[in-house]
Amino acid sequence: MSSDPWFQQLFADRIGGINYGKSNAIYKFEKIKRAKRAALAAHPETELLDFGIGENDSMAPASVRKAMEKAINDPANRGYADNGIQAYKDAAARFMKREYGVELDPACEIVHCIGSKPALALLPGMLINPGDVCLMTAPGYPVAGTWTKYFGGEVYNMLLEEKNDYYPDFDAIPEDIVRRAKLMVLNYPNSPTGQLATVEFFKKVIDFARKNQIVVVNDAAHIVLTYGQKPLSFLSIDGAKEVGLETHTMSKGFDMIGWRLGFVCGNPKLVQAYADMKDNTDSGQFKAIQEAAIVGMDDPSIPQNTRIKYERRLKKMVTTLRDLGFDARMPGGTYFLMVKAPRAIEGGQQFENAEAVSQWLIREKMICTVPYDEGQMLRFSATYDVKDGEPGEDGLMQRLKERLKGIKFVF
Ligand SMILES: Cc1ncc(COP(=O)(O)O)c(C=O)c1O
């Protein structure tokens, strides 16, 4: 007997139609969660070394929390924020100028968003009709692609491969796809590869977009986490504002990941179209949060300290993993370190793919990573939770080394 509810056949095709909720596929993060649970149950006395966390480990800075405390008690902040308060847009304009040298008119070239995730969900809606194509860097953050498909569009994955330095190869995109493409969603600094954009690459993007009449959105969620060089905004390149937008977030650089705030900026007509989509979707982020974020954006030491902390942690991880035989290199950006997954252990275990390695590391060594079977990579995140600053970080690296001591990985 079927236990389907009476409305099972009413589900829309975009979420699986009549088959909605029936898939037995277990997704990557669920598999990791299950393996972690089983390992902790089998070895309750052993510490799980968790490099699988994809979120900042710190609370928002004290000055931001203090500003929030005040703003939350201001009766003027009680109502709908709609498309945002002007003071937040002004602060975002100051931030973009100070950090990236980008001039923006806060009256018409910036609109807030409730984190960049909902912005990336909404943006395809302003361009994609059924049959239109969205070009996306892959692997990557899938939200704009999911919504492109919800709107009846198609996603073309522009693969980021080592042989192309993790940049898309525009010449490899079939002509028919280019012809039907209306939107290109890039993500630089790139997650998970850690690659940074260059001025030359962004110029190439602008030329391609102009020639083929494609709107560009650069998802700059990780831009504050740029190492070894000045962070590069797409909008700092001549002509970028003519072809597109950039999405920014308070999540990563300001440790405000749960506060849900960011901004969309760039071409005024596209910003307006986004604002119209947004106005018909939400009523804006709580004004008190926007006010607190202004204090964060106006303090250059906050993004700088976040950058310094994760750069330090990543460097320690690179040294430790290299000592263990991994080909670890400092990423250009993000708080993630990607390394090639081993194929085997000398004289023992063979691994079918990156996921098998990740499962083995959790089960046998109580070490959590995230596998990427594209490219056979493992992701170690520097957002691990340690209590006592640098000594805690060094201690964790030492424990990681001890856990894997004596194991010879084959790559
Ligand atoms: C590449 C990328 N883009 C966008 C987001 C969404 O960030 P938020 O919605 O917190 O601004 C994330 C979060 O993990 C991300 O990694």
Largest beta-sheet details: 7 strands, mixed
Q: What would CATH call the homologous superfamily of the largest domain?
A: Type I PLP-dependent aspartate aminotransferase-like (Major domain)
Oligomerization: single chain
Q: Mean pLDDT score, rounded?
A: 97
How many β strands by DSSP? 14
Give start-end ranges of low-pLDDT stretches. none
- So what's the CATH class of the largest domain? Alpha Beta
DSSP strand content:
5-15%
User: What topology, given as strand order, has the largest sheet?
Assistant: 2-8-7-6-5-3-4
Helix content: 25-40%
- Rg for CA atoms: 22 Å
Unique bound compounds? pyridoxal-5'-phosphate
CATH architecture of the largest domain: 3-Layer(aba) Sandwich
SSE string: HEHHEHEHEHEHEHEEHHHEEHEEEHE
**CATH topology description of the largest domain:** Aspartate Aminotransferase, domain 2
Tell me, briefly, the overall form.
globular
Question: Pairing-aware structural class of the strands and helices?
Answer: alpha/beta
Number of helices: 13
How many domains make up the 3D coordinates?
Answer: 2
Give the end-to-end Cα distance, rounded to a whole number of Å: 50 Å
Write a short abstract of this structure:
This protein has 411 residues and is an alpha/beta fold. Helices cover 37% and strands 14% of the residues. Pyridoxal-5'-phosphate binds at residues 54, 115-117, 141, 187, 191, 219, 221, 249, 251, 257, 262.
